[in-house]
Design brief:
alpha+beta; 2 domains; 6-stranded mixed β-sheet; 5-stranded antiparallel β-sheet; 13% strand; elongated; membrane; transmembrane helix; DUF3413 domain-containing protein; transmembrane
């Protein structure tokens, strides 16, 4: 009798395990569909190997996650509690929770650039709350509808695979599919090893895209690009950003832009938030954004504003008193109130195309001004960088999705308002906000390299120490160093070096 009960128990468990494999296959298809959003969240790879790696990793990694979830949840339940109806119901609920969590993670990554984590909880809550309050009925309907659709799919897959288990066992699909996914898994890791060894960043930049996948490379990857000082690394596995003996190399041949548009731009720099607010209240045509990211070191912020470059180039350009390369004698720049930049003035303030002035609440705009930017310098107590308020007469600029840096203001002024896009692209790292295609950027201040991607800012000091922070809230994000993104960002920073 005991043997018969044991056989009956084993039979139920065996059936449930067989059903669980088919139920997992159904969920692999659902997870692959949901995880497609990760592939569209960032710029796609441009090489054939990059595209191949993206596809095989998407297939193998998501399938692996789904299978592991089955092994950790449904599999032990099937052995301990082999009652088909209850197991199938619990499996549907667990799978719905997992797929819904994946959908939420995909939404957060698409908007913020990082995955769900406890350290980023305040910004995630802020994102969801903003979405809910901006359109509560539609958001509730969509969120609830997605969860219900996932649950309906789970119930349908659970019941169908159970009632058609005998017929499904006759198919060889599962065997071929499993073999194919194993090949994809092995191929993805092989390609990554090859790409890591040969510095194929079109492949390694994808390390952080899918959830539960983190960079497998080390800081030595940066040293192999001559982007970092490797002396300390060789001695103590510590890398440093190499800023010694840096020379500015102007692009050549330099595009000409003799026919500047007849625009006049006033850029007002206030010393306090109170003065900026008072000025803005007097000018109702100013629009506001809170996404202005600037260094707390005032001289670094001013240099970036004037040259359209990070302060990484400040020693080379200011020592030689090199003028911004876009200037001409007819449409030039006037700087008032900042003595360190008097050498740039080669026109009267009223005739200058761009006027940058130290302002207060009583500052008067030019009568013929066409565009205005106004911001206050950041407090030196706010860390290396901080997000603050920016006012502009250009409503489109303040509606830009993503962060705006001081270098973007001069790049937009020269490239868009003065009609010289080519020279702005050729000579600046600032972005013309009218042509902003992604929410990424680089900067440098107080010996710290700064790179941002959506809401995540990565700071690396001169000793190779790093941290990730939220741009909107300023809290630390406990995530690993995104090596491929970092290397690409440092290469961008060093665009004009010899």
């Amino acid at each position: 009798m005991n043997l018969s009960q044991h056989n009956q128990f084993s039979s139920k468990a065996s059936q449930l395990l067989s059903w669980g494999h088919w139920f997992t296959f159904a969920n692999i298809g659902l997870v692959l569909l949901i995880s497609l959003s990760y592939l569209f969240a960032d710029s796609p790879p441009t090489s054939f190997m990059g595209i191949l790696y993206m596809l095989v990793t998407w297939l193998s990694h998501t399938s692996f996650i789904t299978f592991i979830a089955f092994v950790l949840t449904v599999f032990p339940l099937s052995l301990i509690f082999p009652y088909p109806r209850h197991i199938r119901g619990m499996a549907a609920i667990l799978a719905t929770c997992g797929a819904s969590l994946l959908t939420l993670d995909a939404y957060v990554y698409f908007n913020l650039g990082y995955h769900l984590s406890s350290s980023a909880l305040p910004e995630i809550i802020s994102l969801l709350w903003h979405r809910l309050t901006s359109s509560p009925a539609l958001t509730t309907l969509l969120a609830g509808g997605i969860v219900m659709l996932i649950f309906a799919f789970q119930l349908l897959a659970s019941n169908y695979t159970w009632h058609h288990l005998a017929r499904l066992k006759q198919y060889k699909f599962a065997r071929y599919a499993s073999s194919f996914l194993l090949v994809c898994f092995a191929l993805s890791h092989s390609i990554h090893i090859w790409a890591d060894a040969n510095l194929k960043f079109d492949i390694t930049k994808q390390d952080n895209v899918l959830p539960l996948s983190y960079p497998t490379t080390a800081k030595s990857l940066l040293a192999k690009n001559d982007l970092l000082d490797i002396e300390s690394y060789k001695q103590a596995h510590n890398v440093k950003l190499n800023t010694q003996n840096m020379n500015y190399l102007a692009p050549a041949p330099l595009a000409r832009c003799d026919n500047f548009s007849a625009a006049t731009i006033d850029i007002l720099v206030f010393n306090t938030d109170e003065a900026l607010t008072s000025f803005a209240e007097q000018h109702t045509n100013l629009h506001k954004t809170e996404r202005f990211l600037q260094p707390s070191a005032h001289q670094d912020a001013l240099f970036s504003l004037i040259y359209g470059l990070p302060a990484y180039y400040k020693p080379a350009l200011m020592t030689e008193q090199t003028l911004p390369v876009w200037q001409s004698n007819r449409r030039s720049m006037s700087i008032n109130g900042f003595a360190d930049y008097d050498y740039i003035n080669n026109d009267t303030a009223n005739n200058a195309a761009i006027r940058i002035i130290e302002a207060d609440e009583n500052t008067t705009l030019r009568a013929d001004v066409t565009q205005v930017f106004a911001f206050s310098l950041a407090s030196t107590e706010q860390g290396i960088v901080s997000a603050s308020s920016l006012y502009s007469t250009d409503k489109k600029v303040t509606r830009i999705e993503g962060l705006i840096q001081p270098s973007d203001l001069i790049a937009t002024s020269v490239g868009q308002y003065l009609g010289c896009k080519t020279i702005a692209q050729q000579t600046m790292l600032g972005v013309n906000l009218y042509g902003k295609k992604d929410d990424m950027g680089v900067n440098y201040s107080q010996g710290v390299f700064i790179a941002y991607k959506k809401d995540r800012i990565t700071l690396i000091d001169s000793d190779g120490n790093y941290k990730n922070i939220s741009a909107a809230q300023g809290f630390s994000i406990e995530q690993g160093l995104d090596i491929p993104f970092l290397v690409q960002s440092i290469k961008k920073l060093k665009t004009f070096t010899q």
